[in-house]
Amino acid sequence: MRYLVKKNSLSVIKSKLEQAYYKQDKTTLQQISDSTQAISANHLDNISLRHCFLMAQSTLYHLDFKLATMPVQTELKDYFFCIDHWQYYDLCLLFFVANMINVENMKPYINDIIDQYLQQDMSDTTSHMVAPVIIAILEAAIMQNKSAMTNKLLEKIDLVKFHDQDFEFQTYLLF
């Protein structure tokens, strides 16, 4: 059974990570990473705490375009593989860790997310996370020099109408 972080807690960590990332504040990111790692180590039965650590670690890795170790990538892929219905929590996690996973391993998740989005199978809050996730995966594909993956993803989303009006502009900024 997955333990879910309350939306408020998730929003707080998401906000702190985004602020530190945009400021490129490695010291703050390392502090967040260290504290979330210590907390998660003391609560091994709570997967959401482990995910908070991984999100912090990934945000730190993002500044140096570093991939996670294979065991960590496998841990995340295994988690995502078990998702039948994508929720806000799951998309936030994917948004933050997309850059530290080999993007070629994310194809089934991308397809599943876009299919659920197109079927309007998500809450409004959840569906608003789809565009940022796709942009994060596009960025990861570009940074990992996976041009075939980038092209396939751009083709797949070409006809999708996202809630975010600035999706095209944000994608343009990647190039």
Instruction: Please tally the β strands and state the result.
Output: 0
Report the helical percentage: 55-70%
Mean pLDDT across residues: 83
Instruction: Compute the number of helices.
Output: 10
**Major β-sheet annotation:** none
* End-to-end separation: 40 Å
Low-confidence sequence ranges: 1-7
Rounded radius of gyration (Å): 15 Å
Shape: globular
The proportion of strand residues reads under 5%
Structural class: mainly alpha
> What order do the helices and strands follow?
HHHHHHHHHH
Q: Can you tell me about this structure?
A:
The chain has 175 residues and is an all-alpha fold. Helix content is 69%, strand content 0%. The protein is built from 10 helices and no strands. Helix 8 runs antiparallel to helix 9. It is globular. The termini are far apart. 34% of the residues are buried. Residues 1-7 have low confidence and may be disordered.
Key features?
single chain, 175 residues, mainly alpha, 10 helices, globular, disordered N terminus
